[in-house]
Every structure is written in structure tokens, then in C-alpha cells.
Amino acid sequence: MMFMMEDYVKTAYRDIKNRKKRSWLTMIGIIIGVAAVVSLVSLGQGLKDGMNAEFDKMGADVIMIMPGSGFQSMGSVGSSLTKDDVEVIRKVRGVNLAGGFLSKVAKVEFGNEIKYSWINGMAMDESKEIIDNMESFVIESGRDLKSGDTYKTMVGNAVAQGDFFKTKVRAGDYVIINDKKFRVVGTLERIGNPDDDQAFIIPLETARELFDEPDDLMVIMANIKPGFDPSDVAENIKKAMRKDRDQKKGEEDFSVQTSEQLKETVSSILDLVQYVLIGIAGISLLVGGIGIMNTMYTSVLERTSDIGVMKAIGAKNSNIMWIFLIESGMIGFSGGAIGCVIGISISKSIEYISSVELGVDYLKASVAPELIFGALMFSFIVGMLSGTLPAVKAARMKPTDALRYE
């Protein structure tokens, strides 16, 4: 009795179709697992691509100096950057420009409303060129802040469009920040980050006075001269700051990173989070595999007589085994295909909600063909592996025992 692959597939399809309810229940674990993996991986990769694009805007020649060990330590007690650090950095060989900014949450009043938002104090000297080159802020109306401005502010797009206060804030309006009156000179185009789109930008010296911070800075940014390697300049900055602060290597209360190093750090953190989430989602695939195994054992018992007949007319052990392997693989594959559709729908829905409802532009769903192909093949393999033991049991049945089974 000869079997072709087409015969295996037809037989498996017929058996799955005859047990629709059981097949659907068996697929649930695979569907949930694949949907979770596809949605998490696509969103994780999309977020990673978005963050990399933001870092690319910074340019490869930008170096960031932060208090403590990095992002998580900015503004921490006992660790700070000062105006003196800016002067030290400016003297480092290879540094072109250096400047800092100060950012804090403050009370903001407009009309009869009181809100709290980020107030960003930006340097108005030549170091402002670093921010301008990054193209983080694009003027939508009015003008940019300039040297000599004091109690002037630019507002984020959400503030300008009435998504922060109930009333739109236009250039020429006045807002009260920590009980000080500021004139709005310009509004910004939408950035895509809610914190940035709700922020107020004021001159750095005005921010120092407003927050009573005569020296402290949140971050110092520097760009390098053409021809210099960013990593070498970053190391020179570390040495200069250690010498100025009388600190030993490894005992620094600051961190110096190039834009490429920051990108790698953020990518590694996102990868780690993604792996953990995928591992959790993988539990559903394991449960789904166990479900397939249970279903196939039941199928073997139900079709024992059929197995006896096929063996009696010449079917080989390998033929019987492949019938059940293909069937379990098709169950896994079908569940994987449905899971892919659901996973893509979930990730695209989250992308839409984050963009339209939350105003977050960098959370995109990146659905690569390799991801879909991998998910389908993985679910097919999980199905086949789950059906291996039942298939082996079916193949080893003796024709006489199978024919006598009731």
C-alpha cells in the first residue's frame, strides 16, 4: 500500500474536519501563544526601530554627559552636573560645542486652569546649535527663543492645539509658570512624545532663577569636531571630569556616552524585555503542544480499528506514523496561521491607538515576513513534535490487536 504526501495531507484534513470542535479547542493554546509572540515581537521591533530613528536624529557626533550612571540617575540626590562641568568639557580636545539644559515639572496656569508639565530650560548661547541640528524641535508658528530672551516660552504642539488646556495657546498669549508670567513666542510641531508635546521651553538662565538652581544641570550635550572619533573624545571627557572632580576611575558620579552607545544600551534593554515577554508567551505554546498530544492520543484510540485495517492491507509502520504526524503538524500550523492574523491585528491596533489616542509616534508595529514564516514553521514543528509519541504508538500497533479493539 503506497502513500504519497498528498494522501497524508488529505487524510489529515479529513480527520481534522470530522472533529471540528475538538480541533478548535486543541488549537487555542497554539493560537494564543503565536498571537502573543507575533504581537510582542512586531511591537518590540517597531519600538526599537523608532528609538533608533530618534537616536539617528542626534547624529553620530553627539556625546551626552549625565549625572550618576545614566538615564535612571538623572536628577538624583548627591549626583549633579554644573556650569563648571560645561567649561571643563569645552576645553577637551575634540569637543566643538558643549551646553546643558535643566528640566523639571512645574505648575502652569492658563486662563482658569492649573496643570503640571515639564519645563525645559535650554541654553541660548552657541551650544543651542546642538539641539537645532538634532531637529527635535520644529517651529510651527511664531519664533524660536533667542539670546536675550528672559521670561519667554515656546510651547509643545499639544498645548498649542488645545489638548493640554481646554483652550488653545497661541503665540502672543501669556502663561503663568510657578507664579511667574511668561509670554508665548512660538509653538512647536508635533514630536510624537506626549511629554515633549506638552512641554514648555524657556531660556536656561530663566529656568535657573525659576527653580532656584543657580548651577545644576540635568544633562550636558557636546558635539565633536570633524575628524575626531566619538569614543576617543568621550574617553577624554571622562578623564578631564575625573581630574576636575578628583575622582578615580570606576568611582565616577557621572556617565559619558556617545549617541551610538546610548542606542546600543536602549536596544539591549528593549531586547531583554522582549525576550522575557516572549518566554512568558511561550508557555502558551507549551500548553498548546500538550493539548495537541492529548488530542492525538485520543485520535489514536478512536481509530485503532482503522489502523488495523490499513496494516492488514499493507500499510507500513512509517505510513501510519506519518498520517498522525502530518495531522498534528496541520493542527499546529492552522493554529499558528490564525495566531499570526490575530497577533498582527493586535499590534496594528496598538499602533493606531498609541498614535491617534495617545499621540505616540514611535510605537510602530514592524511585521517582517521572516517573523510570520518563523511563527508558522515553529507552530508546525511544535504540532509535529507533540504528535510524535501518539504517532509512534499508532505505528507500533499489531494488526491483530488493533482489529480486535472495541
Describe the structure.
By secondary structure, the chain is of the alpha+beta class. The chain has two domains: 5-55 and 264-404, no CATH class; 80-252, no CATH class. Helices cover 55% and strands 17% of the residues. It has 14 helices and ten strands. The chain has helices at residues 5-18, 20-58, 83-90, 128-134, 157-160, 194-197, 204-211, 230-245, 259-302, 304-312, 317-356, 369-386, 388-395, 399-404, and strands at 62-67, 95-110, 113-122, 139-142, 152-155, 174-177, 180-188, 200-203, 219-224, 254-258. It has a six-stranded mixed barrel. Helix 2 packs antiparallel against helix 12, helix 9 packs across helix 11 and helix 11 (317-356) runs antiparallel to helix 13 (388-395). The longest helix is centred in the last third of the chain and has 44 residues, at 259-302. The two termini are 25 Å apart.
